[in-house]
Amino acid sequence: MTSAPNSINSFRTLPDPEGHFGQFGGRFVAETLMPLILELEQAYKDAREDPAFRKEMDYFLKYYVSRPNPLYYAQGLSDHLGGAKIYFKREDLNHTGAHKINNCIGQILLAKRMGKTRIIAETGAGQHGVATATVCARFGLPCTIYMGAKDIERQSPNVFRMRLLGAEVKPVTSGSRSLKDAMNEALRDWVTNVSDTFYIIGTVAGPHPYPELVRDFQCVIGNEAKEQILDAEGRLPDELVAAVGGGSNAMGLFHPFLDDKDVAITGVEAAGHGVHTGHHAASLTAGRPGVLHGNRTYLLMDDDGQIKEADSISAGLDYPGIGPEHSWLKDIGRVNYVSITDKEALSAFTLCSEKEGIIPALECAHAIAQIIKTAPKMNKDQIVLMCLSGRGDKDIFTVAEALGVKL
Amino acid sequence: MSDAIIGGKDRIAKRFEKLRAENRAGLVTFITAGDPDPETSFEILKSLPAAGADVIELGMPFTDPMADGPAIQEASNRALAAGMHMRKTLSLVRGFRDHDHETPIILMGYYNPIYIYGVNEFLEDARNAGVDGLIVVDLPPEEDSELCIPTVEKGLSFIRLTTPTSDDKRLPKLVQNTSGFVYYVSVAGVTGAGSATNDQIIEAMARLRRHTDLPIAVGFGIKTPSQAAEVAREADAAVVGSAIVSKIAESLDENGKATDNTALVVSGLVRELADGVRNARK
Ligand SMILES: Cc1ncc(COP(=O)(O)O)c(C=O)c1O
């Protein structure tokens, strides 16, 4: 890790008023959406300063999402690897089984505040779709979820869950038929229905103010984890690890620790079949800065600026971009980004199931795989804190197929 | 607000002057560069002025056209599959300029391919190729420093999209660095979707006229000659895109390849649209 420029006293002050994290971020959207985006920015500013909004959020996070969730000492895995002490922040224990709901509670309350009457969202693994459908059911708003046709096949349990919750799931057949195309389609819906529709973006990407507000709503992960590790160990961890798709669970964990200079931070991208094969989703490792979906960020693309299809066994990481704040954290060197292949993630998936009795989502299996590589080289008194972003029930069909098992 | 001057002559301003002198609205036609393949696309492009196109919008293909409906998405996909890229798009324009020195060409698309080309290099090459202006869908005035300002400094026009969500509060910001003409997107939505009513267009035109003296072109959802004529009674130009691009799609063979008919059906439709536009105020 290269050290940050001395001029930076805090890594937690961005974005600037135009939504920039260094050169990244911004508001690259069609004009039809601009007035709405400015309105959202104002509504969020007001809500953030309104104690009633905070109170309502806290209520739903506690009684509906079931927070705080535990910081769990993964002794089985720690002993097996024989190095650092590994802690899991148990986002898998949230209602709906992943961190995505933290953000959805915040955004649905914002939508209500703004008087919006219809919700749309994109989803990859289906976790964000399920979380969105869940809050829409709870708050009585109709919702339409855009999901790539390829993801509908590999995440069928979540598709059924969304439909049970009353959501309309629209298959997206354009482009690579996965997350990026679902986002295109959601944006198309939004431009068409600007006046009544709120777009609940599922990760720290999109035009300003989304990367900021989604991060703020997800920071509950890191804020709780910080308190919990101090309780358990009396000190901060040596390293944080989290998987990055768009980057919301990672940003939620990382952000409250960014100014704790002794805490090393590692984000794990999906290397798919291997970064060298070209079939992967490692935009920070192998991409370059470009503009897509409302922000400037690292993207996978060709020399003509055409976006490449991402490839990962994990639908939630299968995206050719990344939240702009991660791009900035990479460039200034505060966070180290690495990548993990499908194969490595699969063996981490089974190892965690066997050693901990926890079936992890394939997304965070990437983070576990990284720990499998590094923890054995660390001392027994060192601490690694990882975000277990979701549970793996949704992935059992994909994993069975990859392991050659017929269900 | 300075109009774009290219080597002492500004094709866009001249074209709208001519239209005013003829007391008629113009027809702006959209096709995607390289659709369905670079050669056929060049043939189509060359045929447009004679068929009655007054201004040409040439789409720069992009993998993720977020503000476009299925017709233009597919046009983009066909072009990319046929090996189209930005340098070839510019050489199409260069080739066109060998035959036509007067019809304005506006490149339309998304920012990323331009950003990756390099803004200054792109503007230099575009101007040298004979491009007159740019419409870049995902660059609102909040991002003017990216491309809009450099474009105007290079003497090209940066044409802004105004929409039904552009109210009196927003419009001053929108017309600020705009030149050439103002494009009014008559419905909130993607290209090729439904169309606005005549009353809605009249109301929007009045609102826009309060904020700009530039010519106003109205587009989105115009499919037939009679729709084009209706718009042409109110606006300075009518823009047709998806309907033309759909004609290209219909003309292809079972393998998605161009047929002898492809260029012909396009000029056929453009001729009908031009008739509608030219006779609108008679
Ligand atoms: C369990 C889980 N973890 C991680 C992700 C990746 O998203 P992000 O990087 O925004 O946390 C997803 C996305 O669907 C997910 O479902």
Tally of strands of chain A: 14
Q: Counting H and I runs of at least 4 residues, what is the number of helices of chain A?
A: 16
Overall geometric form of chain A: globular
**Runs of chain B with pLDDT <50, length 5+?**
1-8
What shape does the CA trace of chain B take? Answer: globular
Q: Helix and strand succession of chain B?
A: HEHEHHEHHEHEEHEHEHEHH
CA-CA gap between termini of chain B = 33 Å
Q: What spatial order of strands do you see in the largest sheet of chain B?
A: 5-4-3-2-1-9-8-7-6
Oligomer: heterodimer
Structural class of chain A: alpha/beta
H-E order of chain A: EEHHEHEHEHEHHEHEHHEHEHEEHEHHEH
Number of helices of chain B: 12
How much β-strand is present in the residues of chain B? 5-15%
Q: Count interface residues per chain for the largest interface.
A: A-B, 36 and 43 residues
Main sheet: strands, sense, barrel of chain A: 6 strands, mixed
**Which strand order does the major sheet of chain A show?**
3-4-14-9-10-13
For the residues shown, what is the average pLDDT of chain B?
94
Q: What's the main sheet of chain B like?
A: 9 strands, parallel
Q: Considering DSSP H and I runs of 4 or more, what fraction of the residues of chain B is helical?
A: 40-55%
